[in-house]
Amino acid sequence: MEMNQYLNLFIEESREHLQAINEHLLTLEKDPVNVDTVHEIFRSAHTLKGMSATMGYEDMASLTHEMENVLDQVRNGKMSVNPDMMDILFHCVDLLEEMVQSISNQGDGRLDVTSVVTGLKKILSGEELTPTVWFEEESFIQQGEMEWTFDEFELTVMKQSVESGFSVFWIQTVITTDCVLKAARAYIVYSGLEANGEIVKCVPSVEEIEQEKMDRIFDLVIITDRQKEDLEKIVLDVSEIESVKIKQIDPDQFLYHPSHAESEVAASALTSTELEPLVSTTESVAAKEVPKSTVMQKKSSAHKTIRVDIDKLDLLMNLFSELVIDRGRMEQLSKELHHGALTETVEHMNRISGDLQNTILNIRMVPLDSVFNRFPRMVRDLGKELKKNINLVIEGSETELDRTLIDEIGDPLVHLLRNSVDHGIESPEERERAGKPSLGTILLRAYYSGNHVFIEVKDDGKGINRNGVLKKAVEKGLITEQQQETLSNKQVYDLLFKSGLSTAEKISDVSGRGVGLDVVKTEIEALGGSISVDSTPGQGSVFLIQLPLTLSIISAMLVKVEHEIYAVPLNSIMETAVFNQEQIMRVQQQEVIDFRGKIVPLVNLKKVFNLPNESFADQEEISVLIIRKGDRMAGLVIDSFIGQQDIVLKSLGKYLANVFAISGATILGNGQVALIIDCNQLIQ
Amino acid sequence: MHSGEEYSAQNLKVIVFRLLDEQFGVDVSQVKSIERLDTITKVPRTPSFVKGVIHLRGAVIPIIDLKERLGMEDATVTDQSRVILVTMDGHEVGIIVDAANDVMDIPVSKIEPPPRMVSRVDMKYLRGIAKMPDQLLVLLNLDKVLDMEEIELIFQGEELTS
Q1: Cβ atoms of A638 and B5 closer than 8 Å
Q2: Is the ipTM of this complex over 0.85?
Q3: How confident is the model at residue A451 (pLDDT cuts 50, 70, 90)?
Q4: What is the value of pTM for the model shown?
Q5: What residues 127-146 of chain B have any CB closer than 8 A to a CB of chain A?
């Protein structure tokens, strides 16, 4: 592998780890006593540290190292999680993401992290007022947890003692900060323990203690036949001792090797040629500590996946589109030729290519999770900023969307979520006054329905203020004073999507500039989707986004109008129907029919498309295509139905992009061009 | 089909085509191909010079009648009519002409700015004229003919009236 393949792998895996850390931090915040989560975070941070050190990104390595120290304290029970710690850890993740971003932009990944590092160090040396002792699940010390190692003599002594039935303990004592005579206290602890066993090692050494060359923490290794609890009592009996930590040592676990700190330094000075031999060294050092080594490996996930270049997928899709056109041609030709074997083969080919089509379209589908996963963090940060308690519930993140839509749907969703946080959910005090729980809930839900994907952003906030919207709309000249009364609630809410309208009193960083929702609407419509909003004052609002499932190959109904063939996308069609002349009624000069109890307006396509023989008044039977958009319907009057077919969407090009009621064209099996009708524009 | 301007030091290579009784030339670098006129699928509610679209080798291409676009009255189509496929801004458009069968090298020295009444065509669509030994060749400014903004306005005008 070359260096830049390493680099790509490094960037991708770093991002995955950072994402994992983010998620776990959020879990930890909600459930601070969950040690498993801390272990997960530690593992990810540790892997990140190794990777960045190997790649030579020192700032990243040192920041993750400091994070590790704090996390280590937490997972060993020495510290408990508090809000300040969470905030700093989140901040660390942000900085790391910045660094990875800079690396992926061919930067050097350097960042001034001194203030964060200082913060982390402060947490590490944080004051605790009562002496505490924790016994960890692993009461045996792990290699790499200590800053120093044993020499052969010490190991031999320890092994022999264990064989003789003694225990070996590692004792770490922390003296309180305000203790004046630290060395004296340390000496007292030392002599107390010495009376109960043989002290094999002392860091700092006894001489150093006597010369007061020590800080608050000192370590001892003692061979004794006393119990852990006894030793603990001896230490704690000494005054001005803040805490003590005791772990048993199994001498067999220890191998003689260069110290942990040393190999880390060596790794960061690596060049790619030196990678190989050093890889094995770091592996053996880290082996005990973490199951994954610091070598960059492919992460094994629950199911096997490979990364595919997006361009290749696009190429595959284009080639397949061509195939679909030819498939249509083959069908046509085989019908004309009436050749048994040919017809059979074409049918078989159809089935196979149908499966191929589904598979290819599926490959392009990406779960919404990749978009949704950054939202919990965003909502949390925003909620903190605005001093609101908000819980984001995500449902249906496994729902898949075409790759091209996934990239585009993120921004509109961000805007809608920020909207809900800023305008929807009230402050905790307001909520309590209204009798609501002070924790606001935003529900982000995705699901399939028919040929569409729906995404809902629902909040239990204060809802949309009809009068507020109307007032602003009148102010901006969007409607007149008189119109205010005549508009239904839904119509009032729809006004929100007009540019320039915002009911926020002041412009905040988050929203209020009034150019948000109209942009959201434009973005969604550019993707071939639509957005609507509904609300109940005092109870909340819901924004509903509808998106098409597939893009360039769609199922359509071919119809004939005069001599022209048109294609109508199947997902707009409710039903086909044939009516008698008598069933047609007129309401305010608009021809309508009664369709299952609903009055549906008729759209005369010949008139819309300026075709001859406009009137259908002399026809006995009228063929109608019932189309719908949301809850509104219309009936397209056509001459005859041809049949259903999968068609490939072809754009009409720049010059004809804005033709009324035509969204594109397709090439039929016989080489003829058929225009595709845009039903949305035909329904008022 | 050439890409890039063909200037062999002093010559401009042009495709020569006929509209009614006038000869016009367009820079060969903008021309993709010359095709026969086949079935055109009409697209409703477009300006009358937009004849519709055709299917050409897997792509759907809009077709414009050049005579109509330039405001020339008689816009009939014959067997001789051809479609010149041009590329503008990465988009393809076909323009219908009465005949097209020549490629000429025009010495740049022979190209002059167009005088006022040289052609029925509005001056803004002309790039210049070339005095060839046996004829006068009017060089068309395709960019202006296929100018998006102008076509947009015409479109909007159409919308208001239909």
Answers
A1: no
A2: no
A3: low
A4: 0.45
A5: 146
Rg, Å, chain A Cα set = 35
- Please state the rounded mean pLDDT for residues A484-489: 78
| Beta-bridge partners for A330 | none
Report CA-CA distances (Å) from A581 to A466, A593, A602, A604, A624.
44, 10, 13, 14, 12
Whole-Å CA distances, A683 to A446, A528, A627, A635: 26, 16, 8, 9
B7 forms bridges with which residues in the sheet?
B12
Please state, rounded to an integer, the average pLDDT across all residues of chain A: 78
- A31 exposed, middle or buried (CB, 10 Å; 0-12, 13-18, 19+)? exposed
Query: Active-site residue A68, yes or no?
Result: yes
Residue A562 has pLDDT above 90, yes or no: no
Superfamily of domain A3-126: HPT domain (1.20.120.160)
Contact yes or no for B43 and A656 at CB 8 A: yes
Across A49-58, b (16+ Cβ under 10 Å) vs e yields bbbbbbbbbe
**What is the CATH number that goes with domain A367-548?**
3.30.565.10
Q: How far is A527 from chain B (nearest CA, A)?
A: 21
Question: Given the DSSP bridges, would you call strands B136-140 and B22-27 parallel, antiparallel or unpaired?
Answer: parallel
**DSSP H or E segment with residue A218:** strand A217-224
- Rounded Cα distance between A495 and A485, Å, is 14
Place of tokens 């001792």: A241
Q: How confident is the model at residue A458 (pLDDT cuts 50, 70, 90)?
A: very high
Q: Output the pLDDT for position A617.
A: 75
Class in CATH terms, A553-682: mainly beta
Residue scoring higher pLDDT (B93 or A8): B93
Contact call for residues A472 and A503 (beta carbons, < 8 A): yes
The CATH number of the structural domain formed by B11-152 is 2.40.50.180
Can you list the alpha helix ranges (DSSP code H) found in A105-227? 114-124, 152-163, 182-194, 206-210
Amino acid letter for position B105: D
How many whole angstroms separate alpha carbon A12 and alpha carbon A19?
11
Low-confidence ranges of chain B (pLDDT < 50): 1-4, 6-7, 162
Bridge partners, residue A556, by sequence = A569, A645
Residue A605, token pair as written in the block:
């396509």
Chain B residues with beta carbon closer than 8 angstroms to that of A654: 89, 91, 148
Beginning with the edge strand found earlier in the chain, give each strand of the sheet holding B111-112 in spatial order: B99-107, B11-19, B22-27, B136-140, B126-131, B111-112
**C-alpha separations of A225 from A96, A197, A220, A229, A281 in Å:** 48, 7, 16, 12, 36
Where exactly are the structural domains of chain B?
Answer: 11-152
Q: What is the pLDDT of residue B158?
A: 58
Rounded to a whole number of angstroms, the distance from the CA of B20 to the nearest CA of chain A is: 26
- For residue A191, how many C-alpha atoms fall within 13 Å in the half-sphere facing its CB? 8
Q: Give the H/E segment covering residue A127.
A: none
A106: left (phi over 0), alpha (psi -120 to 50) or beta: left
Return the residue in A673, A675, A682 with the most chain B beta carbons within 10 A, the one to mutate for interface testing: A673
Tokens, residue A217: 């923490």
Average per-residue pLDDT for chain B: 82
Strand pairing class (A167-175; A217-224): antiparallel
Who contacts A271 (Cβ-Cβ below 8 Å, separation ≥6)?
A: none
Residue tagged active-site, from A40, A66, A68, A426: A68
Q: Which residues of A touch B59 (CB under 8 A)?
A: 650
Please say if A591 is a catalytic residue: no
Q: From CA B35, how far away is CA A226, in angstroms rounded?
A: 101
**B88 strand-pairing partners:** B91
Q: Which CATH class is domain A152-253?
A: alpha beta
Count the residues in chain A.
684
Q: Which two tokens stand for residue B131?
A: 């005095």
